[in-house]
Amino acid sequence: MKKIITLLLAVSSLTAQAQSFKQLFLSMPEEICPLLSEYNRLELVDNQINNKELKTRNHFKTFSKMTSLTDTYAHLELSKSASKTFKMLATEQGENIIMVISTVVCDSVPDSSVSFYNTSWQQLPTEDYISLPPTDYFRQINASADDNTLTLTFRNPLRLTLDGRAKPQPVTVVATETLTWTTGKFEASTKG
Question: Average pLDDT of each block of 10 consecutive residues along the chain (192 residues)?
Fold first, then answer.
């Protein structure tokens, strides 16, 4: 009997350490994703379990939709102009951290920011995990669901002329960069 209890305790300890992103998503504080309540997040996970459409009515009474939800990755379309991507990453110490990419779209131009959290949802210093140069450009950050890479796309800001005679310069892609998660940090792997 003691062996069975010891075995059950060991298995439950391993399960607690190897939390999937779905479990972490349910325990996420509302301030990280204020548009969704705990009930909304539970509904999304429950819908996936029951093979239903992964959408829920958010605080604005519109629909938010989960386009991907796995044990290490999730992409959430909060509204027509806002999304969040979550990616669980392993550190050198064997612990998991969660990367959260927040993207807003204005006039069809996306702009992203990134933050990192431990599995207790305490925010970690971003600069410990990624070096993003300060820029006046719009920066779109996309995480791969299949591997540990990020694609950064830089777009020039819309420039208007003061005299109003010349046409505004269109927003275009000026550079693309791929970063790969290695040794507990995102590092440049190719530049475009």
Answer: 35 46 91 93 91 90 91 93 95 92 92 96 96 86 95 82 66 90 84 46
pTM for this model (two decimals) = 0.82
The 8-class DSSP code of residue 164 comes to S
> Which residue, 56, 110, 93, is CA-closest to 184?
93
Q: Are 97 and 117 in contact (CB under 8 A)?
A: yes
The DSSP output letter for 130 is -
DSSP string, 34-102: TTS-HHHHHHHHHHHHTT---EEE-TTSSEEEEEEE-SSEEEEEEETTEEEEEEEEE-TTS-EEEEEEE
- C-alpha of 113 from chain center: 9
